[in-house]
Amino acid sequence: MSDRRLVKPVAVAALAVLLCLPPFYLDAFWLRIGLFSLAAAIGATGLSLLSGTAGQLSLGHAFFLAVGAYGYTWLAGDPGPGLPTALAALLAVLLAGAAGGLFSPVAGRVRGIYLGVATLALVFLGHHLLLTADSVTGGFNGRSVPPLAVGGFAFTGDDPGLTVLGVPFGAEERLWYLALALFALTWFTARGLLRSRPGRALAALRDSETAAAVMGVDVARYRSAAFVVSSMYAGLAGVLLALAFRRVVPDYFSLALSVDYLAMIVIGGLGTVAGATAGAVFVTALPLLMTRYADRLPLVAAPGSGDAGIGPTEAARYLYGAVVVVILLYAPDGLHGLARRVRARMRRRRTPAGQNTAPAVPPAPAARPKEHTP
Amino acid sequence: MSVPSLQVRDVTVRFAGLTALDDVSFTVAPGTTHALIGPNGAGKSTCFNVLSGLYRPAAGSVRLGDTELTRLAPHRIAALGVARTFQNIVITDGTVADNLMLGRHILTRAGFAASALHLPRARREQRDHRARARETAELVGIGAHFDSLVGLLSYGDRKRVELARALCLEPRVLLLDEPVAGMNAGERARMAEVIQDVRTELGLSVVLVEHDMGLVMRLADEVTVLDFGRRIAHGSPDEVRRDPEVLRAYLGSVAEGEGAA
Hints:
The complex is a heterodimer of chains A (374) and B (261). Chain A is 67% helix and 3% strand. Chain A contains 15 helices and six strands. Chain A has helices spanning 2-20, 22-25, 28-53, 61-76, 85-107, 112-132, 134-137, 171-194, 197-207, 209-214, 219-245, 255-268, 273-292, 312-330, 334-350, and strands at 143-144, 149-150, 153-154, 163-164, 167-168, 247-248. Chain A has a two-stranded antiparallel sheet. Chain A has a two-stranded antiparallel sheet with strand order 2-3. In chain A, α4 (61-76) packs antiparallel against α5 (85-107) and α4 (61-76) packs across α11. The radius of gyration of chain A is 22 Å and the shape is globular. Chain B is an alpha/beta fold. Helix content of chain B is 39%, strand content 23%. In chain B, the strands form two sheets. Chain B has a six-stranded mixed beta sheet, with helices on both faces. Chain B has a four-stranded antiparallel beta sheet with strand order 2-1-4-5, covered by helices on one side. In chain B, β1 and β2 (18-28) form a beta hairpin. In chain B, α3 packs across α5 (120-140) and α5 crosses α6. Chain B is globular and about 60 Å long. At the A-B interface, α8, α9, α10 and α11 of A face α1, α2, α3 and α4 of B.
């Protein structure tokens, strides 16, 4: 028993060390993939909390990401108040949370697919605002993002110059550690939420609002709280994405981005942090990797090569579209559920027949059971 | 913990012209089991939904002690100590423990910030209440399944999870909507024992909707019979059993002059 209890902390520590290594061994391309993946994982965790745990379909995640990204850019930049960048980042996250809170009167009234459509409006509204509010957003061309600096240490190539173990630490290397720290924070807080009172209340809302209410859960309050918390994670992801891109443009925060995030949480498995992370890495890294290795992939044309074939970005979309379908059909609880079942099966195989104590993990139902109406 | 009486006075509920409950009154004396019976569609579940705040009656009042319940939201009524189960099992995906801890929602405080940051206060609360939830699970006889996923449990056990979750609210009034529906004889007998045990052990009032007359006769101190939303009989189980109105409602109209046997 004691060795099994040790396994987990040791595994976590090993993983942490492993995640600190890439800047020493991988070039900027891979670091950027990692950076975008980590940012997406933070955002996807937020959406997973809202749509996966609390069962509120949101197509408006891109809007909250935009609030975080543009919020930071405006708060830290010129034109804008030009606040210290760390403070601007924090305020941008709170701003995104406030935006989620402002939406809650709507979120409290509509459910299911209607909520999805209502959140869709947010994306269009947001996109329109980003294009037209020139003085804040820079309009169609967007704005360049002021680099983050914490206590005189800037997350840029040189300020101050830094070389660790013979590796010069440029923007990518520095941002990698920032992203890692923020991701660890996301993991820690989201797990805390999911495994305690608020998380259980949100899950109860998803399965039956009626049952949740008679158990003493203030349904309206928790529905809006889910939006606020989810938007704060989206805001944090937005800040990180802005820092990674160094430029924010309106077209990035389109409906396609919202759909990407939904794909992430479906592929990864709804309602878990690990699932959201796995899905985020998959959806983010796939197009980038396919672009990089387009010349070696069949049927995929390298960008700019003029060959017949589909572009790598489109190919990636086809591929993860197919993955979403396959997952919905064969593993509705996503990569996370799949991994869990494989683990349970391995555990069963290891324990001799007869003393089988490990419970089988049931496959998740393909669709949620209908809301119970007493 | 003093259990106040639950007084239902002249409650009327209408759905678009259909009167689901028509001037229904009854009182659940503290610490007793009160059964609500009647044919399908008689308004029993509607009555429960009024008691737990899901429906607002068109007229009438429901009082728990001195508190008027009909104007309160469901979660406020739960906080006053009225817990219920559903006719069809409604439990959350996850483990038995997760479900029972949901039952302790109103008795716990940890909010979003404290939980997200794993504050010691929140962790201590979670640990303490988990221990209490485990006791409840054992009381109901599902202690062995405490960490099992509810999806793996038998129908009877899931029914008991629902009961245990309601008990986790530490209610003063427990509303049970068909607690043995769909169970086999063995499960029914065990459930009846559990209900009797928790009532004597926790001293709460129980309002029971049930079609199983054997169970009703065995558990109930008082019975109210509804038919088409109206109260047609009221009294001890024995009185109700002999009531001609009740027999007519259950067996159809009896030919003129024939005695109701």
